[in-house]
User: Fold this.
Amino acid sequence: MSSAVAPEDPHQRPQHDPDGTDNGTKQAATTLKQVISCYNARLASARRSPGDGGDLVGAWLTARDDAVDELDRLETADADETARIATRYAARLKQLRDDR
Assistant:
C-alpha cells in the first residue's frame, strides 16, 4: 500500500524542475543578488566616507531597489521575461565590476 502524495499548491512555483532548466530563474536570481550586493557595498562605502556624492548615492539606491523589485518579479516571470531580466542584469553586473 502506497501513501498519497500531496498535490503542489497551484499558486506557487513548482518545487521541482521538470525540464531541468528552471527557465533560468536560479541563474537570474543569482545574478540579481550579486548586483544588489555590489550596490550595497558601494552604499556602505559611501556611508563610511561621507562627501559630495549625494546624486550618485541616490542613483545607487534607486538602482538597488529596482534590482530588488526585479528579483521579486522573477517569482512570476515567464521564460522570456526571465531571459530579459537575466540579460539586463548580467550586463549591469559586468559594468559594476568593471567600474570598481
